[in-house]
Amino acid sequence: MRRWAFVIASLLLGCGASHDALLRRAEVELSCPADALRARTLVDALGTGKTVRVEGCGRGRTYTQMCDGSEGELIRSCTWTR
Questions:
Q1: How far, in Å, CA of 9 to CA of 23, rounded?
Q2: What do you get for the CA distance between the two ends of the chain, in Å?
Q3: Which of 11, 26, 40, 66 has the most crowded Cβ, counting Cβ within 10 A?
Q4: What is the DSSP annotation of 37-68?
């Protein structure tokens, strides 16, 4: 259910790094199966919600979405960094 909510929110916000890509990365970096991961969006000072904390298997990492263009651009590339 959480994944679908994030996917829908991502589509409404426009182009961006996908939640699935974030979970695949976290799965490798945390050595934890995707079904054991929990992701929650952290609200930053601007309220953008571009920071996500992923936890699972006793470990956790915080990721921030970084994009190469501004929010209004039609074509831009985004990725998750830590």
A1: 16
A2: 25
A3: 26
A4: -EEEEEP-TT----EEEEEETTEEEEEEEEES
